[in-house]
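Hello,

I think I submitted the adenosine-5'-triphosphate job twice by accident. Can you confirm which output corresponds to this input? Input:
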Amino acid sequence: MEHQRDQPVTLLDVRDLQVEFHTRDGVAKAVNGVNYSVDPGETLAVLGESGSGKSVTAQAVMGILDSPPGRITGGQVLFRGEDLLTMGAETRRRIRGAKMSMIFQDALSALNPVMSVGAQLAEMYEVHDGMTRKDSRAKAVQLMDRVRIPAAKDRVGDYPHQFSGGMRQRIMIAMALALEPDLVIADEPTTALDVTVQAQVMDLLAELQREYNMGLILITHDLGVVADVADKIAVMYAGRIVETAPVHELYAAPAHPYTRGLLDSIPRLDQKGRQLYAIKGLPPNLTAIPPGCPFNPRCPMAQDICRTDRPPLFAVAHGRASACHFWKETLDER
Ligand SMILES: Nc1ncnc2c1ncn2[C@@H]1O[C@H](COP(=O)(O)OP(=O)(O)OP(=O)(O)O)[C@@H](O)[C@H]1O
Ligand code: SF4
Ligand SMILES: [Mg+2]
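Support: Only one job matched these inputs. Its output is below.
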């Protein structure tokens, strides 16, 4: 995919973001200094096990964090160089309303069940662009066509529950793209769908992303999904980015043992019958993240230093970083 190298400022630049949840069991440190960025036309995949902070980071960026109990305790969310966390409320609302949008896993709960899909799409144009009812309805049909809903014209008056899961997900993509945002965050957009439909919806999303030159953040726990669509990957563990790399480089040679574990646990057609690897143990309790490297209790390469010294993100190569004391040894093992 083409990167826009001449872009003066990064589209979205998340810097040292920190989010806590105050719970009965203590303070859960869900996001602990996340850094990532995405440019126009670029796709960043954010990967990690359940509970690693992928969604909470996205919610903080979008301004939809469950707060309380959640609280942003540090960092910046720069949109075209301006910090969403400190700018005036009116400007922030305008950016988040029209320039950024989100696609969720569960379209049925994200869409309004008592409003036809056509009316929901049309409403966006009426509210944001001041379109007349007639024009907005025509745009809604156009958009449904664009996301390849068969017989869009006849189905514009149907309600969300009258569509299949895959079609509903297309409608949610249409909603998210209606105002031609600069940035879309898709949080597990295909997880609820069966495999063939997953691929179709992902292809559609990738196609529209290219066409509109949007920045796309694709959150997933499925490494298999991102190989074809992402430019770069950020791997999260216990609220931190532990490895970032261009997608093909990460696949060819991971520089973090956690990433290697994730790669080794993907089923591969060419190795049928082979015992599938699973990373042993569980992610840490976020109210008591272990000292040193948070991955050390599960890491097959852990040494003494890993239990005492927290590894920063070491620069591994251009565009690559790994939060592992032994990134070099890990790379060399491939
Ligand atoms: N509403 C909440 N109240 C309390 N804690 C929360 C809340 N939402 C998230 N957390 C905490 O933040 C952690 C990270 O959650 P997050 O939803 O970002 O995980 P995720 O990486 O998106 O996982 P998944 O793959 O399951 O979606 C959770 O493990 C939990 O400890
Ligand atoms: S720093 Fe140590 S424990 Fe952490 S991933 Fe690297 S080798 Fe494993
Ligand atoms: Mg999530």
